C-alpha cells in the first residue's frame, strides 16, 4: 500500500491578507537594497575595516554577506543594521557557485575582484526573470580597461593582461545601465589612470556607491550625472558609511496607501528621490506632503482614484521597479490608463495573477492597457518576482475579501519586515505556514 512520506522542511509560507482596511500610522523605511548589494561588494576594494550602517535585513543582503564570508572576509554584526567588513585578508578571486547564482547583484563581484586582484571568477548572475538580462555593457567596460573576459565552465572569467592592474579608459554605455555603471566604477576605483563613463545611469544608488567609495579615499566625480569620472587611487582605507533609504520600498508603501486609502507618514526617506513616484500618485488624486525626511501620503478611502499614463525610464524617470505596484493603483482608478515599460522586455508576468482578482488588464509587448475597476476581489495569487510580489500584497490590502500570496521568498529578497511594517499601520496581514502537499512523496 502506498504511504505518504513527509519531507522535512517541505512547507509553504504564504501571506494571508484580509483586505479593505485603510492604512493609518507611520512606517520606517530601511536602507536601499540596490545600494547595499553594490556597497557590500565594494568593501573588497578597501584595505581595512568598513563599518556599513543602515543595512536592510533582506535575503539578498544576507546572501551577498555570505559570499564575502566564503571568500574569506571577516564580517561582524555590530547591531541589527550595522556590519563591520574586513576583506584585507582575502586572497581568493573565485566566487562559490551555489550562492552567487541566486542573486543578480553577484555581478558586482566581478568589478570589485577585478579591481582588487586583477582577476575574477564569478558565476553568471541570477535574480528575477524580467526578460533578457545581458551584461555586455559591464564587459565592454572591463575590456576597455584592459581585461580579457570569457564565459567558460559555468563562470564569467575576467583577468588583466600583462600585469595586475586595470588601466583607466573612456567607456560609452550603449544603453543606460545601473549595473554596468556601478560595476565599472568598482573596477575603476583602484585602476591606473582615469576612467570616464559616458551615458551613465543616474539612480540614487549610483551616487550612494560613489559617496561610499569617496569616503574610503576614492576620487569619483559626476555621479548622478550622465558623465562619471573616476581617478584611480593606490589604496582605499577603512571608514564608516550609512546607506541611503530605499526609494522603492518607500514608493511601495506610498502605492499601498494610494490603493487601500488612509493616511501614513513614511519616515526615513529622501523626498527628492521619491519625486518621480510622488508626481504620478498626485496625478491619480493622492495627496503627498513632503517633510524633511518623510512624506505624508493621504487618500480618502471613499474617493475614486483618477486614471493616468505611466512610462518607466531610467532615473529621474518613473522607476521600472515601481511599475507593478503602480499598475495595481491604476487598476482601481476611474477610466483607462496606459503603462509603457521602458526598461525590461518582460515585466508583466504578474498580469494573470492580478486578473484573478478582477483587474482588467490587456498587455501587448511593453504596453499594458488597464481599465479601472471599482474594487478588486481577494484570491489566491503568486509573487512572480520581487516587485510583482509587492504589487500582489498591495492588491490584497485594497481588495474585498481574503488574498493569499504564495512564493513570498521573492518578496523577502527585497522588503525588510513587510508584514510587521504593514500590520503597524493597521493592515490585516499574517504569515501562514502549511505543509507543502506537492512535496509529500508517494512511496512503497
Ligand atoms: N542591459 C543590457 N546590457 C547590459 C546591462 C543592461 O542590454 O550589460 C539592459 C537590460 O537588459 C535592461 C536595461 O539595460 O533592459 C537596464 O538594465 P540595468 O543594467 O539598469 O539593470 P540591472 O543593473 O541589472 C538594476 C536593479 C533592478 C532594476 C534595474 C533598473 C539591482 C541589483 N537591480 O538591475 O532592480 O530594475 O537596475 O533600474 O540593482 C529590483 O530591485 O526589483 C530590480 C529588478
Automatic annotation (TrEMBL):
UniProt keyword list: Cell cycle, Cell division, Cell shape, Cell wall biogenesis/degradation, Cytoplasm, Peptidoglycan synthesis, Pyruvate, Transferase
A cellular component term (GO) from this record?
cytoplasm
What EC identifiers does the entry list? 2.5.1.7
Record pathway: Cell wall biogenesis; peptidoglycan biosynthesis
Please state every residue range assigned to the domain named Enolpyruvate transferase.
Answer: 18-422
A Pfam family of this chain = EPSP_synthase
Q: Is Ligase among this UniProt entry's keywords?
A: no
Please state where this protein is localized.
Cytoplasm
**Ligand binding (UDP-N-acetyl-alpha-D-glucosamine):** 104, 133-137, 321, 343
Read off the InterPro entries from this record.
Enolpyruvate_Tfrase_dom (IPR001986), Enolpyruvate_Tfrase_sf (IPR036968), MurA_subfamily (IPR050068), RNA3'P_cycl/enolpyr_Trfase_a/b (IPR013792), UDP_GlcNAc_COvinyl_MurA (IPR005750)
Q: Which residues form the active site?
A: 128 (proton donor)
Role of this protein: Cell wall formation. Adds enolpyruvyl to UDP-N-acetylglucosamine.
Q: What name is this protein filed under?
A: UDP-N-acetylglucosamine 1-carboxyvinyltransferase
Amino acid at each position: 500500500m502506498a504511504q505518504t512520506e513527509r519531507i522535512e522542511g517541505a512547507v509553504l509560507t504564504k501571506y494571508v491578507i484580509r483586505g479593505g482596511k485603510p492604512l493609518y500610522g507611520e512606517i520606517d523605511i530601511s536602507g536601499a537594497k540596490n545600494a547595499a548589494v553594490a556597497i557590500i561588494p565594494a568593501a573588497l576594494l578597501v584595505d581595512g575595516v568598513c563599518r556599513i550602517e543602515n543595512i536592510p535585513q533582506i535575503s539578498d543582503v544576507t546572501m551577498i554577506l555570505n559570499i564575502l564570508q566564503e571568500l574569506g572576509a571577516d564580517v561582524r554584526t555590530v547591531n541589527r543594521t550595522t556590519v563591520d567588513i574586513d576583506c584585507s585578508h582575502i586572497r581568493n578571486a573565485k566566487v562559490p557557485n551555489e550562492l552567487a547564482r541566486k542573486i543578480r547583484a553577484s555581478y558586482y563581484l566581478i568589478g570589485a575582484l577585478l579591481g582588487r586582484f586583477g582577476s575574477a571568477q564569478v558565476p553568471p548572475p541570477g535574480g528575477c526573470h524580467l526578460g533578457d538580462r545581458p551584461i555586455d555593457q559591464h564587459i565592454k567596460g572591463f575590456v576597455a580597461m584592459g581585461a580579457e573576459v570569457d564565459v567558460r565552465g559555468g563562470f564569467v572569467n575576467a583577468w588583466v593582461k600583462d600585469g595586475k592592474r586595470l588601466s583607466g579608459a573612456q567607456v560609452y554605455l550603449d544603453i543606460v545601465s545601473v549595473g554596468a555603471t556601478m560595476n565599472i566604477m568598482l573596477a575603476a576605483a583602484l585602476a591606473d589612470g582615469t576612467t570616464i563613463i559616458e551615458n551613465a545611469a543616474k539612480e540614487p544608488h549610483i551616487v550612494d556607491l560613489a559617496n561610499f567609495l569617496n569616503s574610503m579615499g576614492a576620487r569619483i566625480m559626476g555621479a548622478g550625472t550622465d558623465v562619471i569620472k573616476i581617478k584611480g587611487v593606490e589604496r582605499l582605507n577603512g571608514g564608516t558609511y550609512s546607506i541611503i533609504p530605499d526609494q522603492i520600498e518607500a514608493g511601495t508603501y506610498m502605492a499601498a496607501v494610494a490603493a487601500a486609502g488612509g493616511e501614513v507618514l513614511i519616515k526615513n526617506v529622501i523626498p527628492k528621490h521619491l519625486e518621480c513616484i510622488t508626481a504620478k500618485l498626485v496625478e491619480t488624486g493622492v495627496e503627498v506632503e513632503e517633510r524633511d525626511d518623510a512624506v505624508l501620503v493621504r487618500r480618502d478611502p471613499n474617493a475614486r482614484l483618477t486614471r493616468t499614463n505611466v512610462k518607466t525610464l531610467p532615473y529621474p524617470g518613473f522607476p521600472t521597479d515601481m511599475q507593478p505596484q503602480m499598475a495595481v493603483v491604476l487598476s482601481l482608478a476611474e477610466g483607462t490608463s496606459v503603462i509603457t515599460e521602458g526598461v525590461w522586455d518582460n515585466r508583466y508576468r504578474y498580469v494573470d495573477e492580478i486578473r484573478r482578482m478582477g483587474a482588467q488588464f490587456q498587455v501587448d509587448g511593453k504596453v499594458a492597457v488597464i481599465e479601472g475597476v471599482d474594487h478588486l476581489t481577494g484570491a489566491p495569487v503568486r509573487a512572480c518576482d520581487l516587485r510583482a510580489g509587492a504589487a500582489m500584497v498591495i492588491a490584497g490590502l485594497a481588495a474585498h475579501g481574503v488574498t493569499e500570496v504564495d512564493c513570498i521568498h521573492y518578496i523577502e529578497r527585497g522588503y525588510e519586515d513587510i508584514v510587521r511594517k504593514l500590520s503597524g499601520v493597521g493592515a490585516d496581514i499574517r504569515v501562514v505556514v502549511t505543509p507543502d502537499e506537492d512535496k509529500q512523496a508517494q512511496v512503497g
